[in-house]
Amino acid sequence: MLRAVGATLAIGLLAGCGAAATTGSGAGNADVATGGSKFTTADAETAKLGTDAAPGEFPRVIKHAGGETSIEKKPTRVVVLDTGELDDVLSLGITPVGIPTTEGKNSIPSYLASKVEGVATIGTIQDLNLEAIAALKPDLILGSKLRADKLYTQLSSIAPTVFSIRPGFPWKENFLLVGKTLGEEKQSVDILNDYQAQAEALNKDVTGDPKISLVRFMPGKIRLYANKSLIGVILKDAGLARPENQNIDELAAEISAENIDQADSDWVFYSSYGDPATTGEQAVVDGPIWSKLGAVKAGNAKSINDDVWFLGLGPAGAQLILADLRTLLVK
What we know:
Blueprint: E1 3-4, H1 42-46, E2 60-64, E3 67-71, E4 78-80, H2 83-91, E5 98-101, H3 110-113, E6 120-124, E7 127-128, H4 130-135, E8 140-144, H5 145-148, H6 152-158, E9 161-164, H7 171-182, H8 185-205, E10 212-218, E11 221-225, H9 230-237, E12 252-255, E13 267-272, H10 276-279, H11 281-285, H12 294-297, E14 301-303, H13 306-309, H14 315-329
């Protein structure tokens, strides 16, 4: 049976008063995780956030998921707490002074790595180093309630902090919030308009109505990504259909290697969060069931870049996904 997957909340409270430099588990917000009471409305609620200030005008007050934050002048020393915020600021031409690493195959998403060479790291997304953040003397911290809700007070004592509700499927609303925070409202809208034009062009150029299945191998689990995910939103924007078991308002559904046949569709795009040998991907792909999938037989099962398709979480990653989809689907 398929079951909806709950997001793991992994960043934690600072232990003691300055006694520990890093955070443990439990600092996120279960209400905005998959299955939480505020999960499905995160995009609509994020769209209500922002500022009444004129475009580019400072000082401004930003209404955000953590409350209200005053920003006196355009930020120049920005720390980001996740890959989505990293993609967002780089897309707006701002190189952050501090970034987290991931536990994926690459510590920094490969498509962004060359843009942040030499930038200081602040621990991992799951284990932030608050002392390292403070040492960078940022004038803005960008994060989310999902990752670091219970750290908001500590982070705000370091620098003005602006939170989205959660990364993932509200990626467009999150990007607009970052644009408003940085005084780059027009640029963020222009970038999203360009993305939408590319999505609509892809829809016109794809022949027929192929259904797309998304499979991600992770340590101890296999996920079929659904509508409430970055790639789910992109596929919807491009008018590309999903198999019934992924056409659900969840982040993902979870299956086992024994029922990998439930991943079959016209096209199967798959990746691993980490080494394919340790995520189980290699064993499944080399196993007896995989070769019997219709998509595999048709040559329509393709390995994709996990860094982009699942860790991008912003407009640069989204446009690369559209380019990949065009290469794969447009003959």
